[in-house]
């Protein structure tokens, strides 16, 4: 005899809810225990206690500000947060050692590639060794070509003229400039990488499913790094619940789009197209998953960084009328009265503008810190011992605020510090590792600088942009790139000239 008990629908739902709720409570409890265990077992030093109890928040807006304070007070410019097994340095000699002299001892490492692995796969941003070297060579060749640079500038120019300027001109209400700049840079990097226009900066400011999925995927991947233990997200991923379920769905949207585009290119041909994907398809003809990984890495590398850099720039400019006037004087000297967009040649001649862009990223670097993992025991130039497997972090945000690197006026926004007799003089990249430095220096540095300067030239010439509301320093959302919590509200008005 066979008994079959058919649970009523509502009962099945209740049972499921009960189990799901119990699991969530138990899981949170387990995470909290793990957190307490780490707190007790790791270390009881003042720094670790302050970190683990979040008591730094009573004095500092951001974790990076607290680290800056600690690094300033450290005689070597290096600190160790034992609870995180993380050595953090703002010492240029150490940065030179990590990023160049002993480059092979400081790969990105397994913990980092595990965190971003589902989103980035085997893309350049997420791999070491031969896989990295192969992509680096291929990408350097492509990005170094004059043709791709002029292709990139064409994309940026079009986006400024047809979308960015009209949107700002049409709005006299308060706008979130950070949001506008994120939309702007997403349109650009998608056009550049895939030859696809997501249209995020259309006048209606639409919600783009791709941008949304990409944002969610990078945010949730970054949040993995903040969990008390990697075990937590790994178990959630295994069970496909909570944030890991959302992450999987967001990555699926990005993957579907990338795979669709690759398939379409294969069918329609790619040899005459200029975007990065089509260029890479000529070198990698038989591995679509790999192609997808490479191009998604570019999307991540080039999207939020440019928007973050421009947000920091306009925040500083809004408080520094003197710098704004000097930029305008220079623009007027090199551009005709009716010219809206500066040419590549004009941008190259504008040393003050270049200095102002560098100076803003000294104070607000888009990538505030960057970590590597020591492959073997080592000793840094300042005498700090590094045990194999330790996370080693260089901190551009703190370095830009160190008196011993930049002098007593290090907190001032002063582009003149980059100029000698009006000519821009670059600084040692290990003192200013905003684009990293050494063999793994940012591949998009020149493109990013041209994009930033084009935007600044076009906006500063035509508009007055004032940040409204709070006068306090920005608060950042924890993540891979600097994002101001709550956005950057501005009022934009046409200049009377
Ligand atoms: C102001 C804008 C930018 C800043 C501050 C910046 C900064 C950085 C930093 C700090 C790294 C090292 C990251 C790491 O290894 O963990 C990096 C790597 C990279 N960046 Fe940028 N970036 C910017 C814009 C761009 C753009 C627009 C692109 C692409 C068009 C790009 C492409 C890359 C790539 C491919 C890498 C990986 C290089 C490698 O691992 O060999 N970046 N960038």
Describe the structure.
The protein has 497 residues and is α+β, with helices and mostly antiparallel strands. The protein has one domain (60-494): Orthogonal Bundle (Cytochrome p450). It has 19 helices and 13 strands. It has helices spanning 9-42, 46-52, 63-73, 92-101, 110-120, 129-144, 146-169, 177-194, 209-224, 230-239, 242-268, 276-283, 288-319, 321-334, 344-349, 351-363, 396-399, 403-406, 445-462, and strands at 78-81, 86-89, 175-176, 370-373, 378-379, 385-386, 391-394, 419-420, 423-424, 463-467, 476-477, 483-484, 489-494. The strands form 5 sheets. It has a 4-stranded mixed sheet, sandwiched between helices. α7 runs parallel beside α19 (445-462), α9 (209-224) crosses α11 and α11 (242-268) packs across α13. It is globular. The protein starts with 8 loop residues before the first helix and ends with a strand. Mean pLDDT is 89; it is low at 1-9. The structure holds protoporphyrin IX containing FE (HEM). Residues 124-125, 136, 298, 301-302, 305-306, 309, 366-367, 370, 434-436, 440, 442-444, 447-448 line the site of protoporphyrin IX containing FE. The site of protoporphyrin IX containing FE has 21 residues, from α13 and α19.
